[in-house]
Design brief:
The structure is a homodimer. With about 240 residues, chain A is of the alpha+beta class. Chain A folds into 2 domains: about 140 residues, Jelly Rolls (Sandwich), CATH 2.60.120.10; about 80 residues, Winged helix-like DNA-binding domain superfamily/Winged helix DNA-binding domain (Arc Repressor Mutant, subunit A), CATH 1.10.10. Chain A contains 9 helices and 11 strands. A 4-stranded antiparallel sheet of chain A has the order 1-8-3-6. In chain A, helix 6 packs across helix 8. Chain A is globular, with a radius of gyration of 19 Å. The N terminus of chain A is likely disordered. Chains A and B meet through strand 5, helix 4, helix 5 and helix 7 of A and strand 5, helix 4, helix 5 and helix 7 of B. Chain A binds a DNA duplex (30 and 30 nucleotides) through helix 8.
Chain lengths: ~240, ~240
Amino acid sequence: MSLTKKISQRVIPIKDFSSCAYCSVRRLCLPVSVDREEINIIDDLVANRPSLNKSDYLFHAGDKFNSLYAIKSGAVKTYGSTKGGREQITGFHFSGELIGLDAIGNNMHNCSAVALEKTVICAIPYKSIEEVSLHVPAIQQEITRLMSREIRNDEEMLMAMGSMRAEQRVACFLFSLYRRLLLRSKEKYTFRLPMTREEIGNYLGLSLETVSRRMSSLHEDGIIDVENRLITLRDIDALQAICH
Amino acid sequence: MSLTKKISQRVIPIKDFSSCAYCSVRRLCLPVSVDREEINIIDDLVANRPSLNKSDYLFHAGDKFNSLYAIKSGAVKTYGSTKGGREQITGFHFSGELIGLDAIGNNMHNCSAVALEKTVICAIPYKSIEEVSLHVPAIQQEITRLMSREIRNDEEMLMAMGSMRAEQRVACFLFSLYRRLLLRSKEKYTFRLPMTREEIGNYLGLSLETVSRRMSSLHEDGIIDVENRLITLRDIDALQAICH
DNA sequence: CGGGCGCTTGAGGCAGCTCAAGTCGTGTGG
DNA sequence: CCACACGACTTGAGCTGCCTCAAGCGCCCG
């Protein structure tokens, strides 16, 4: 049955709390211009909502590209392997974020994605997105906007990597987590890192020891508290100032 | 007059050698699945084909986003300014490449684009692309593919920046230029750098002196010849091996 | 022909890496 | 439930690759 038919035959749905309509991070995956009706359409697309445990793979580099993945809860890292065989982390992704956009181009994932903790995922088959976007231009536009934003993010990261010293990189990293993790939680200034120091260092182009040292010195300066993976921001203005 | 009308009223065109149909880099801007008819449509979109001199701006950071730009010939750098006020180059772009995709997301350019030498540009109004892609899905798909590829490129660059030593960065940079510049020219192994050592260093996260030194040592190893901005690749396999 | 920019090369310093040792926290098996 | 073991983290010491500062050359353009 074609998706178009499916949509027209759709009855008023029974409340389904796994539906996007009730998803607490909906406004993050689908930020704008998607009205009630369109949510129902998207809802139909979401094939499954698998739950991943720590170290479970969402996809491997080289896998055929089928779906985009929206993170409902949890945390995921994506990484590629450099030609030297070293693993290089390209990003950390949290609830409300969409991954897999880089695979559309040649229909294959060029990085691997692993859960850093218990994580719930919405898999959205790309074929369906393409089909639906013929009828609902807003969805295609939203995908385009998200991709554009991803390009911008990557380029900002490139700018940071090219010019920043170790302390700046760590400060920016923490500030970025602050904006992405805390704005959607009750805690205002405390969050738990889902990744190791080594993974942070890998991502930032630093050794794990340097990450540790710089976090210690940020603590000595009264800017953050560090208790293993629990980070508390004590002076956000100072933290932000270091990034600049 | 709406674009749709314009298309239906279109007569068989007089040969226009500035048209995309006769553009030598067409297969690069519009790599796949765009047939003769669709080229005519795109052709109508291209508002103007301005010629830029060295140091002319294509757009500034903060400008309202109106058009995507395809480079017909020449070379362009894009850069943003870090919060510290430093200029950070995010990319070099050559004939057949498309720039401005990162501006779609919030309708504003977040980097500036400057010609590094005499450069001819096709400006393609994004509004028109959006309108046309309602009728010609292949065009929207092509934009999506190009964006996806840009994300991938940026992420590969991030991986490189995170893990590579100076010599590797310079070697990869030269190898990347080899693939992008030489494949569309007659010369097999010689090309002219359109940018300064300082710009290369800025892009790669190195000082200009380090770029110079590493190029000298690549020369001493018999891998490249350097004659000011004229680079000749003497041992491509060795060059590629260094990147790995 | 002169001035300036782009580039090369040298010398010295330092940020961050590597190696190493020791602590702490967590998960696992008895 | 406790003990043990291993992985994660911190901190120290020494090393090195890249940066900074500096001087000099050469090419290009006015």
